[in-house]
Design a protein that fits this description.
By secondary structure, this protein is α/β, with parallel strands linked by helices. About 40% of the residues lie in helices and about 20% in strands. Strands 3-2-1-4-5-7-6 form a 7-stranded mixed sheet, with helices on both faces.
Length: about 280
């Protein structure tokens, strides 16, 4: 890992993550060794909109049971497990953070999906895969930490087959206003590298993608946060993304809401197709 990637992995790394999730499962009355597919939904989808946002993204990809999907920045594996379960296909997920991959592997085994979901510690800028290995790829709330977007999308393009779909859902900046920190992905500008939607389109085009859809999900995000804050008025639920965020979770989530509401950032979905060589 380069120095920036080391800082990012350290930012997300948390040796107590699995223990917190297990404690949350116990409080919720869920047997951690007998998990149903939806038991982990409140905690495993570490991005704005949670499971609803993932299902919305996946619905636009036309995946089949023979597809091999790449999840770039898979976190603790929620989206990867969802895709494997819904499509019957295979998913490979990569993430910089060892604790995320360790937790993701254990949760994947507990949900009975280890035969279809493979999870590895790897950099999105130098992936350990052959050219044209995957039928589709997703990135969900990942690029905000990556300064070298040209390298990121060039590497994703390299490992995708011609005609493959790339679906991304990331936070993008709307203006040059200063963000309220901390947020889930950073405590300062040092590791926060947001781009505008127009800049994203340029990076994707340069990497050999044709963007077929762009969706600003601001209204969805604000409604999601308002409902989440209302539900947690008397304290957080046993299972939720606060377990992944750890200390300062409430402040980080409120700052994301403030940054979106003020028009500084917007959660944005893009669907792209890798052009033929």
């Amino acid at each position: 890992m380069n120095p920036l990637e080391t800082k990012i992995a350290d930012h997300y790394g948390d040796a107590e993550l699995l223990a917190r999730i297990d404690a949350g499962l116990e409080t919720a009355g869920i047997d951690r060794n007998n998990l149903t597919p939806d038991d982990l939904a409140p905690v495993e989808e570490f991005h704005i909109g949670g499971r609803m946002a993932t299902e919305h993204l996946v619905s636009k990809m036309s995946l089949s049971d023979g597809d091999h999907v790449l999840d770039v920045g898979c976190g603790i594996g929620g989206a990867a497990r969802l895709i494997a379960r819904q499509t019957g296909g295979r998913v490979t997920g990569i993430d910089l953070t060892p604790e995320y991959i360790e937790t993701a592997r254990i949760l994947t085994e507990r949900t009975g999906l280890a035969d279809r979901v493979r999870l590895e510690i790897a950099s999105a800028l130098e992936m350990p895969f052959e050219d044209k290995s995957f039928d589709a790829a997703i990135t969900i709330h990942v690029a905000m930490n990556i300064a070298d977007r040209a390298a990121l999308y060039g590497e994703i393009s390299r490992v995708l087959k011609p005609g493959a779909t790339l679906a991304l859902f990331d936070i993008m900046k709307k203006d040059d206003g200063a963000l309220a920190y901390p947020v889930p992905w950073a405590v300062s500008d040092e590791t926060s590298h947001l781009t505008t939607p127009d800049e994203m389109l340029s990076f994707l085009k340069a990497a050999g993608f044709e963007v077929t859809e762009v969706e600003d999900r601001t209204a969805f995000a604000l409604d999601f946060f308002k409902q989440s804050f209302a539900a947690a008025k008397n304290g957080p639920p046993p299972l939720g993304v606060h377990l992944v965020l750890g200390a300062g979770a409430s402040e980080k989530l409120k700052n994301v809401f403030v940054n979106i509401e003020s028009g500084r950032i917007a959660p944005t979905l893009m669907i792209a197709r890798r052009k033929p060589d």
